[in-house]
Amino acid sequence: MGVFHMRSYAWRQGEFAQARATRFVLNPGESLFVPAGWWHTTRLLSATISVSVNSANAANWRDFRRDFCAGIARDRGSLRARLTGVYLTLLGWVLSTLEMLEWFL
Of 51, 43, 56, 61, whose CA–CA distance to 2 is shortest? Predict the structure, then answer.
């Protein structure tokens, strides 16, 4: 997301306006963990191979469901958000059950 769009978002979300920047350089062999929901941007200083992973799992499923449904409610209405929430709740239960069963196989 470009800086212009981030500022537009900040206008709507007061917390972002209070954010403080942190700048640093990652050296070869180093990695960075960015928690879910943290705004970030990168600038490549040289030819770089970058790997990014976004995943939903048991540790963050509730937050994922809440955030995803909030976007659905905003864009498509509360009924669709509620139905999506029910679907994601059931899906989370199925996935966690399958994960637990895998431990016993």
Answer: 43
| Number of Cβ atoms within 10 Å of the Cβ of 101 | 9
C-beta atoms surrounding 81 within 10 Å: 18
- Percentages helix, strand, coil for the chain (3-state, rounded to 5) are 55, 0, 45
Q: Can you tell me the distance from the alpha carbon of 40 to that of 72, in angstroms, rounded to the nearest whole number?
A: 23
Any idea where the domains of the chain sit in the sequence? 3-104
pLDDT tens, residue by residue, 15-30: 666 777 888 898 888 8
The amino acid at residue 63 is D
Tens digits of residue pLDDT in 36-83 = 667 778 888 888 888 877 778 888 899 889 989 999 999 999 999 999
* Cα–Cα distance for residue pair 32/30, rounded to 1 Å: 7
